[in-house]
Predict the 3D structure of the following.
Amino acid sequence: MTDSDWVRRAHQVLPGGSLGSFALPSGEETVITRGSGASLYDTDGREYIDYLLGSGPMILGHAHPAVVAAVRAQLDSGSQFYAVNEAAVRLAETIVAATGWAEMLKFTSSGSEATFFALRLARAATGRSKILKFEGGYHGHHDYAMMSTTPSVPAAFPAAVPDSAGIPAVLQREVLIAPYNDLQRTLELLDTHRDELAAVIVEPGNRLIDPLPGFLEGLREATRRLGILLVFDEVVTGFRVAYGGATSIYRVVPDLTCFGKIIGGGFPLAAVVGPRELLEQANPRRRGPGYVYISGTLNGNPIAATAGLATLEELRRPGVYEGLQAAGDRLRGGLSELCAEMHLPVQTLGMASMLNLYFTASPIHDYRSARTENTAIKERLGRELLRRGVITNMSAKLYLSTAHTDALIDLTLERVAESLKCMADLRHNSW
């Protein structure tokens, strides 16, 4: 059976032949059968240099020997208990210690659940119902989060635009939208709605856009003064940009943090992390007024916890984060040089081992400035790279792992150069 047969079968049983919102370009689709290191292989045996990395969790690459060995050992002892288990306790201790400020956590099975439950904790703690998020910010797929993430027609602030059909209209009134990196406008909204807001949720590097100096600090000061909880969404950045997450870089401590992706080592696991006072609201031994229900069948699954522990142990080895930073710098720098040689206006955004290209001459500081890019070029580049054995999700970001060697990055840059030249030739050297 060929890869095209598998693609056809996928379309018969999966909407769009996809597992979620991500889909490879029509006509270039493939079905993956295995991963190893920084590579994926389809059902025809074709190899792809992988910059998806499972949408971020595979920071050590695919099938890392330490993770595989740990998971195999745990499988012999059982795969699911629905009870407190040794691996979950050890991982919780490791994560809490890594933050340097948190005291407790509740496990969930996905980052979306983590942000959903963090906001529930905030509403319970404050007795208020509204939340504020930033335009362009993605915090998972639950109804409160899916507002103004990718609005095709942005509304006037603070009105929220639903990102999906099927979201109750009443929730639009429960979510306020602010412009990222505009501290003054955000502070005005916080002050105006101070008696209604339970939480502000923000990704410290909002979709790869760095916070301007003073922005996170200003949010922290204002939310503390107004009794509004500050929630950091570190599902992406946690243990990727640094051990413990972006908080250790920006030196701003939130009230709650959401971790995901890497802490499960490639298995479904996430967590809401914070001080004892807030997390004790979810203590099932204290059911009654004020109790916050947080539960899930696979929360703290021992296989996922074991994989997470093995991953974090590898990340603690000397030089790992320096190597990831160097790999990111090498790819970012190379991409910028190639685009400059082709006279393509581009902004190369990212930090540590994450990046993306925005084909625009305008500096990017928020969602609306990012929308000035030429998306047709990016989409075409992604298609050309896939044809040349490089798999990406350029609508979101590119991830690197410890398995991405200098040689693989240089090979990637060669294929980017080939792709850009092909695109220019097809357009008669006119972009």
Summary: Residues 128 and 195 are 7 Å apart (CA to CA). The mean pLDDT is 96. The domain at 3-63+318-426 is CATH 3.90.1150.10 (Aspartate Aminotransferase, domain 1). The chain has two domains: 3-63+318-426, 65-315.
